[in-house]
Amino acid sequence: MTSDSRPLAVFDLDNTLSDARHRQHFLQRTPRDWDGFFGAAPQDPPLPPGVALCLEAARQCEIRYLTGRPERCRRDSLDWLALHGLPEGRLHMRRDDDRRPARVTKLEVLRRIGRSREVRMLVDDDELVCDAAAKAGFRVVRADWALASDALRQAQEKEGRT
């Protein structure tokens, strides 16, 4: 089986593979400190259940990463994945100026990549993303192993920031 024929396993980053709790305080102030929030991402510890699931999925699937992080965070995100021994895989990010909700932007990417490849699973912590993906027919694994803040949930849904 070539990598072009293997199914895809798609993983979110924040609070799925990486523990973003230490930086959520940047979102609990007004105005929210997005530079601080994303600037602290390289210090995220890995979340062992998410990492283990990603490594297990990589035995049968090509791994893709799908994050609401803006494009300007690409280098930090790729470095973090490599540092923590996660499989290589294409990283899908939002444009720096895209403020649509994550449930919209992520579903758009899933549909695009799902036109030519089987998406075996999406692993994400955002309930609205998971609900939208499941409704669209994708198999969803809800990453419920990290505790997200209300501020992060609002940022994901209302501000289109992560």
TrEMBL record:
<dbReference type="Pfam" id="PF25109">
    <property type="entry name" value="HAD_PNKP"/>
</dbReference>
<dbReference type="InterPro" id="IPR056782">
    <property type="entry name" value="HAD_PNKP"/>
</dbReference>
<dbReference type="InterPro" id="IPR023214">
    <property type="entry name" value="HAD_sf"/>
</dbReference>
<dbReference type="InterPro" id="IPR036412">
    <property type="entry name" value="HAD-like_sf"/>
</dbReference>
<feature type="domain" description="Polynucleotide kinase PNKP phosphatase">
    <location>
        <begin position="10"/>
        <end position="141"/>
    </location>
</feature>
<protein>
    <recommendedName>
        <fullName>Polynucleotide kinase PNKP phosphatase domain-containing protein</fullName>
    </recommendedName>
</protein>
